């Protein structure tokens, strides 16, 4: 299995920025498309951004133009730069492959992002 550890969340005011990090325990991560997902209370987990092994990116309409996903395979890491944050971005953020392969990449604990004044 590949362990995924997310970090970088916190409390931020509307309009603020955060940078999330996800570090994988094994370099096999580099061959997979990776995604950032989020889950708000009472909601289903949703995919917000994806980056392929070749670094092509795709975003949910709700975050397009505000979030940027990137990866550093040498560091076994994927990042999510979040700008112009809105209260509706409040959720626990997770990384995993796209689509999720939760037997090989078990879900981590995620990192809480709270956008509030």
Which key phrases capture this entry?
mainly beta; 6-stranded mixed β-sheet; globular; 10 strands; 117 residues
Q: Can you walk me through this structure?
A:
- The structure is a single chain.
- With 117 residues, the protein is mainly beta.
- The protein is 0% helix and 45% strand.
- It contains no helices and 10 strands.
- It has strands at 4-7, 10-12, 18-24, 34-39, 46-51, 57-59, 67-72, 77-82, 91-97, 111-115.
- It has a 6-stranded mixed beta sheet with strand order 2-10-9-4-5-6, with no helix packed on it. A 4-stranded antiparallel beta sheet has the order 1-3-8-7, with no helix packed on it.
- Strand 5 (46-51) and strand 6 (57-59) form a beta hairpin.
- The protein is globular, with a radius of gyration of 13 Å.
- It starts with a strand and ends with a strand.
- The mean pLDDT is 96.
Roughly how much helix do the residues carry, as a percent range?
under 10%
State the order of secondary-structure elements, H for helix, E for strand. EEEEEEEEEE
Strand content: over 45%
Distance between the termini: 39 Å
- Please state how the strands of the largest beta sheet are arranged side by side: 2-10-9-4-5-6
Summarize the structure.
The protein has 117 residues and is mainly β. 0% of the residues lie in helices and 45% in strands.
Secondary structure elements and pairings:
Elements: E1 4-7, E2 10-12, E3 18-24, E4 34-39, E5 46-51, E6 57-59, E7 67-72, E8 77-82, E9 91-97, E10 111-115
